[in-house]
Amino acid sequence: MGTQDPRVDAYIARSATFARPILSHLRDLVHQACPEVEETMKWSFPHFMYQGILCSMASFKEHCAFGFWKGSLIVPSDGSDVEKAMGQFGRITDLRDLPPRKVITGYIRAAMKLNKDGVKSPTRSKPKATKDVVVPDDLAKALQENPQARKTFEEFSPSHKRAYVEWITEAKTEATRARRLETTIQWLAEGKPRNWKYMG
């Protein structure tokens, strides 16, 4: 039997008025398609778990986002710019922006099968083959002092690591660099990527 997380209820309740019916609709669809799904909060937004991460949803000031962890194996790309938002469905501002219920249900079941079969996400295994990110000494020292932040950083893809490294190293003054380093460690300890506020 699946589970609902009260933190997801709270997340929906504090989202913008336009977002609530969208998030509720997506949540219902996931539970209908996958009765065993378990809800949780990761990186400050709702995730749905079924033998691993299945999908997630998020709301922002002016749009919502919905995506599958292994989206590139599930949702066909039409070559458009929907990737400008987190997930595979672009900037969702209305229920009409979503594919029909039957289509989303099919995607959810495909995601379930991938997890059940133990298929790895290509977008999360390929980056490891790319060249290593050079971590500056001050960041390396700060990561050593915060095990949770270090764990998050080590598990991030090279692009997520690079985003933090570049943000720190591009600081114009030492004071700015110190502030950015402190914020980096705080966000990493919370499991957040560098651009978590602006995803989408």
Structure description:
The protein has helices at 6-13, 19-33, 101-116, 122-125, 137-144, 147-155, 158-169, 174-189, and strands at residues 38-42, 45-49, 53-59, 64-68. The chain is α+β, with helices and mostly antiparallel strands and 200 residues long. It has two domains: 6-121, Aspartate Aminotransferase, domain 1 (Alpha-Beta Complex); 130-198, no CATH class. A four-stranded antiparallel sheet has the order 1-2-3-4. A hairpin with a 4-residue loop joins β3 and β4 (64-68).
Number of folding domains? Answer: 2
Q: Mean of residue pLDDT?
A: 86
Say what the CATH topology of the largest domain is. Answer: Aspartate Aminotransferase, domain 1
What is the alpha-carbon Rg in Å? Answer: 18 Å
Q: Are there runs of 5+ residues with pLDDT below 50, and where? A: 123-129
Class of the largest domain in CATH?
Alpha Beta
Put simply, the count of helices is 8
Which architecture of the largest domain does the CATH hierarchy give at level 2? Alpha-Beta Complex
